[in-house]
Amino acid sequence: MTLPVTSRRSRRLLASMIVAGLLGPAPLVFSASAAAAAPPPGDGGGPDRRVLQYADPGVSGTTRDLAGDLVVVPAPDPGPEARAGQPEAGDRYYLKPAAGGEWVELHFDKGLPSEAQGRIDAQVAADGKVRQAKVAAPVRKAPTPSAHRAWIVKITNRGDYTYDGKPATDDDIKNVVDDGLKRWVAESNGYITSFDVQGKVLEAEASGTECYGGGKLWSQVEDELFPDVKFGGSTGNHLFVVQPGGCGGGLGTVGSPSIGNGGYVSFDYSPNKNTTTIPHELGHNFGLSHAHTYTCVGDSCSDASYGNLYTAMGTSLVTSPPIHPGSFDSFDRGKLDIASTCEVQPLELSEGQRSVTRTYDLFGRGSDTGTRGVKVVDPTDGTTYHFDWRNAQGRDAQSQYARNKNNTRHRYNLGVTVQRVVDSDYTQLLTDAPDSDSIRYGRREGQTWSKGGVTLKVDRTGTEQSETASAQITVTLTNPAAADGPALPVQPDGRAEVIGKPGTGETLGVQTDGWAEGTCHRFQWLADGQEVPGALAPTFTVPAELAGKAITVRVTGQRTGYAPTTVTATTPSGTPQWPAADFVPGIAYRFTDAASKLTAAAPAPGSASADLVQRQTAGDETRFAVLPAGEGTYQLKNAATGRCADVAYGSTSEGGRVIDYACSAGSENQLWKVQRHPLGGIALRNVLSDMCLVPKDGSTADGAALVQTRCRLDRAQSWDMVQTVPASEDWPTVGNWIGTVPYEIRNAGSGLDAAIPAGTKPPQYLEQHASDPQSRWKIVANAGGYELRDPANEEICVQQSGTRIGEWYCGDNVPARTWRLAQNPAGGISLINQATRDCLTVKDDSNDSGTQLAGGPCGVEAHDRWEVTASVPPVDQWKAEPAPLGTVPYTLGNLAAGKPAGTPAGARDADSPLVLGATGKAAQFRLEPNPDGTVRIRTTEVDGCMDLYRGRSGDNAEIGSYGCQDSDNQKWRLLANPAGGTSVRSVDSGKCLTTKDGATTDGTTLAQTTCGLDPVQRWDVRVDVPGIDQWQQVDFDPARSYTLSDLAAGKFAGTPAGADSTDSPLVLGATGKAAQFRLEPNPDGTVRIRATEVGGCMDLYRGSTSDNAQVGSYYCGDGGNQKWRVLVNPAGGTSIRSASSGKCLTTKDGAATDGTLLAQSSCGLDGVQRWKLDEAEPVVPEAAHRPTA
């Protein structure tokens, strides 16, 4: 085919150059109002280089403020159907509103760089022109393995779906999408654990006439069919909209580079092209740009977008039969951060160095092991180049260039490719010949390429066509401007050891240890000291012709800035022990055999003790939770059966069966080590037998049984270990957070707490610090989840803005300030923002105090998980509740169940259970104080005492009623729980009253558990007496005088000594006649209480209804504020209740000292508002004691 070639620079390069100018000081223009406003976190208020600020001063008139996600849609792949002279479309920009609804197309006066995706706040005119915008790009995080999902919608009003003259079914459409999804699973290096189509193909009618649809079509389909699914961002959710043939290509949104992205894809149904179109558009979703070529003929050079046909990011091709794209190149794999260690080796000159030369053994770009690329930096101008070897093997085997590999005139030939990186965004594939008749993109054996200070020489490409074949290249970097510097330092020697059993037909490997970080290795196998031609891989299978020869391997360690170091490893004896694999324990994984490509699986759920097998299926039977069981050992628990991988009968023999068996703690035949296999992947080594898991006889058949064999360098013993973590929206919500107590939110990776920097005010960004008062948060429920409030100022909440996490003023259910706390599959809590669906994490996965927190893709790594614990004092420091009244009945209501505890209906024996759901007298207790400050809790109905059965100390020990006795298992402390309510704590065990297993149903027996804040162990302890309106009136004799003594103070009330006016205070501590009152009945049943000494009446000052309002003596009248009711208090004594306010006589502030004024408060059982009403003794006048003459 003829590639579309343009003589100008690419759109993407041009856009990047323009915006680079925008980031300078001169072209930026902002309105005064915007400059003056205090920005919320992440909106460009700080020196965050990820925030792009944009202004177009040419826009005038009315604008509206919009907020949401900026979606960049590159120009569609024109495909081979592109007509000559057709204008080339540019990138398009859309704002996807955070509040939902139709996407808004934006028009900037200058292009934006592809890195500009992210949260956007913009002022937009009616025609879409942008006056001002701020874009906060997402934080770049190391990728974590995750599942992806795809939804497919076909447009039904733009023609019929046919292929090769036949109508296409929904399954046909689903199959072409699934083919592209599987390709990305294969390319992702395990970072995409699964990529499955969700449900059936749905249908929609397009409302617009635009061929590609783009933002408006995606917006329409999303709103109509998927209101509850979030696409794009870091969700891993992808929407595919398919149309009948005729549009000529495909379209996909461009994400910020991350393998965890979701996105949107449109394509026309054309199976002979979709095998390349769909991987290409998904590449855009993940943040990849088009792959270009750069061709020079004479002095004329041109850049061709889509021109690189070695990779999927080039143009889509129509072929019959369909082809698959080549594997993604070193640049794209590095851009997504999915390349394996040493897959792409870097080389650049150290400071002061003039020249360096390195030799590399390159394996094919489509293979899965070894070094597959070299990245160099030209010391003369800083240009970055990538070198890959394309040998049409592995994942390249069905590519366009592989199909034409025998065509000697084809420009996409087998060989070493050179790609130049442009603006860190895309690459240009460079030719190796200046004349158009012999253009070749792959350098062949013996050829040399030079540019600036870089020289590449292809030493050998070999003739062997296999995934294990390798080419050899030599790269020299030279900086003519640098003086000859000192020799490169020699890095410390590492170690190398041959692994495996020597012998013909055996596969040997190399284990390296002790090398500095960043060291990569070359290998050369030797027989009796002589090089074995082509034996350059980390493994070597000994051929028959080398029988009896001593096999060794020469290992060369190479690291930038150091001279190479070479060691020779000899073949050892004994069983190989391999290093432990690095993985997240506690979550489920799938184990796929490197040789058979099938997955370890349990038998049917009902088939206990049956053999484990290998399967093609991907259900729960292939998921195994890797559960820590000791130092470096694990149980493999199947998700479908709940049983564990077990070596049958504890066999230590080769070929011993591995079965699905009931899990048993400490059983060594169920304990496994997860180790790094020298051939890649991991090995599962049984602790008891010291043998490794493998398909029986190395079978590649579906359903073959798994057995154990001696651990060796056998690919059938190497397993790809892939996380099977569900999408974060499926993680279970953790609720029951208590909004009244503060919590510490501690990062599982760093061990530091989420905190506000000391002495700051909002807006402020959260950091991680050691535990202190600044690192406490209240978790308060709202309609959408929870708000994280600052206990020091509960009007301040934690919010996510862009990717930054800060404080801002709380609002009503604002999604950016609303969080869902979910159970992370690996343990701990994930805090998920309801606006972005991002998870709270630590910037750059740092362990340093003071590092800012960030929002990023949800994962199971340590820095994505948090320990959320209540910051309350230990139970020994909880305050005791006021001493109860032993004379009145109480009820104990459980705060979780909302039900009272007591004896069961019909119980009459003191030896009875205590249960939830009691009623009437059976729900009453008397709380009898003991001299030591504890209480005895007596059941009113059966006259037994609350009893901890046999004084047991364990959780869930039963608590019932038993005959009362003076023993610690019947002594309890009533403590004020920090979360509210009362905790009833056993003196004997130190544990707290709860219900059996935390249940809340009627009839649940009471039990004990470790004291905490759970509502099921908090109780509403309240007096169970009639309402005050039902209290009986006291009988009295109006002809007699009475005294009122306060039961709390033990002192008489009356007028102060020497008072002689009716307008006098009433106080405690009165004596003699000043402490006497007469009770004078009123016709309405109330009484007037007259102070005998001064003749005034008890008077509520101005009839106040407030607590603590003064009660004194005043001139007698008929006002309601001088009318009282004298009532029998259920706790003993008398209550004197105002007919005016309904409140009861007490002392000012509840004080008990002489001279304390009388006052009123809400009626209750407190001793300070209970009075002893006694007839007064007659007062003998002083004169009566004098002698008569």
Automatic annotation (TrEMBL):
Keyword Magnesium tagged: no
Highest taxon of source: Bacteria
Source organism phylogeny: Bacteria, Bacillati, Actinomycetota, Actinomycetes, Kitasatosporales
PROSITE patterns reported in the protein's UniProt record: RICIN_B_LECTIN (PS50231)
Entry keyword annotation includes Ribosomal protein: no
Sorted UniProt keywords: Lectin, Signal
The protein's name in its UniProt record: Ricin-type beta-trefoil lectin protein
Organism this protein belongs to: Kitasatospora cineracea
Membrane spanning stretches: none
GO MF: carbohydrate binding
